[in-house]
Amino acid sequence: MKIAALVSGGVDSSVVVHQLKEQGYDPTIFYIRIGMEDKDGYIDCPAEEDIEITSYIAKKYGCKFEIVSLHEEYWENVVSYTIEAVKRGLTPNPDMMCNKMIKFGCFEQNWGHEFDKIATGHYATTTELNDKTWLSTAADHVKDQTYFLGQINYMQVSKLMFPIGHLQKSEVRAIAAQQGLPSALRKDSQGICFLGKINYNDFIGRYLGERPGKIVELETGKILGKHNGYWYHTIGQRKGLGLSGGPWFVIKKDIKRNIIYVSNGYDPDTQYGKVVNLAGFSFITEDIWGDFEGTRDITFKVRHTPEFTRGKIEKIGDIYRIQSEEKIQGIAAGQFGVVYDEESRLCLGSGVIADETAE
Ligand SMILES: Nc1ncnc2c1ncn2[C@@H]1O[C@H](COP(=O)(O)OP(=O)(O)OP(=O)(O)O)[C@@H](O)[C@H]1O
After folding, report:
1. Do the domains spanning 210-267 and 271-353 agree at the CATH topology level?
2. Which residues are named in the active-site annotation (predicted)?
3. Which residues contact 205 (CB under 8 A, 6 or more apart)?
4. Does residue 121 line the site of ligand 1, with CB under 6 A?
């Protein structure tokens, strides 16, 4: 079997190579350049150290190694999506878009199609059920990364391999240490790769500039201060509002009037909700419900968290509506809602949290 292993130089994907070799495979290693260092030299993804480590891993295990570039594709698919979403007042998820469009999209079209499988260091597993492949959760429920994979399609999931998905993170680190891999002690990456070392606000500022507006207390309508543009603020955000007498939380944004609404207190009720409307829902493997009346029991996530929340899902026209059992904090339009079966074992699919304020 021909396997392409996507290796970033981090501990997880380094151990992927070890695991594959142990299983008797001879993967070709690919490092993808996806930072933005060629755009005016502004956004700098720290690629060189990663490449050095990946190259060391390739040598150690005697694997073919290719460095490929998807800079432009990354810009067109992920960065522009991020800027567009933020401009519309939404909360984007660049990492999910990167998996769907870059790692398993453009990579497949350019190089992956020559291989039988693509292996990554994601904490996830696949399950064969009813002659089909299903994305399923990792043995390490805290590290589980299926949330970030919730947008992939059937073609993609049936080609993927997650050689460390059945291990705990501590076991992965132990293997790396035992094998003397240089990545053993590296810190986990923090996502949003293209930002590299630059500050998120600088990045947004560069593309969207400033548009000063009011910060208003939701409950009283009192003007509390000024912000530099609604795109600098996200629902659920607590830090960086520059208001005294806090904590303050961003609860709502009025894009048309450029107003940020905030609530005060350590745990204001206004930051919670129980209903999540998902638009453009797509199933990864298959639509297991079809058109249905009433509700189905599920678990779900509205962001990458260790916990799965229980809820019921119903279909209302094109919208899938989740009624959560527990109140959930910071339901932000634009983020993805990822839906799992009742046991939080199979990842079924995802949709975008709808903007309730849009007309
Ligand atoms: N630049 C890259 N080139 C090739 N593959 C990559 C790259 N970045 C990430 N990947 C792949 O995607 C997986 C998940 O990426 P993520 O950014 O979540 O890294 P991570 O969880 O810190 O894993 P790692 O420790 O391998 O970096 C990685 O394990 C690797 O297989």
Report:
1. no
2. 98, 193
3. 232
4. yes
What would the pLDDT profile of 56-93 be if each residue is shown by its tens digit?
Answer: 999 999 999 999 999 889 888 998 999 999 999 999 99
Distance in Å, CA 32 to ligand 1 centroid: 9
CATH architecture of the region 271-353: Beta Barrel (2.40)
The active-site residue, picked from 63, 98, 106, 347, is: 98
Per-residue pLDDT reduced to its tens digit, 250-305: 999 999 999 999 999 888 888 889 999 999 999 999 999 988 899 999 999 999 99
CB 44 within 8 A of CB 204: no
CA 278 and chain centroid, separation: 16
CA of 13 to the centre of ligand 1 (A): 6
CATH fold of 3-121+163-195: Rossmann fold (3.40.50)
280 is in an annotated binding site: no
Q: Does 13 carry a binding-site annotation?
A: yes
Domain ranges of the chain: 3-121+163-195, 210-267, 271-353
Out of 12, 71, 149, 194, give the residue to mutate to test ligand 1, the one with the largest number of ligand atoms within 8 Å of its CB: 12
Q: What is the ipTM of this complex?
A: 0.97
> Is the CATH code 2.30.30.280 the one for domain 210-267?
yes
d(C-alpha 277, C-alpha 283), whole Å: 16
Query: Is 221 known to sit in a ligand binding site?
Result: no
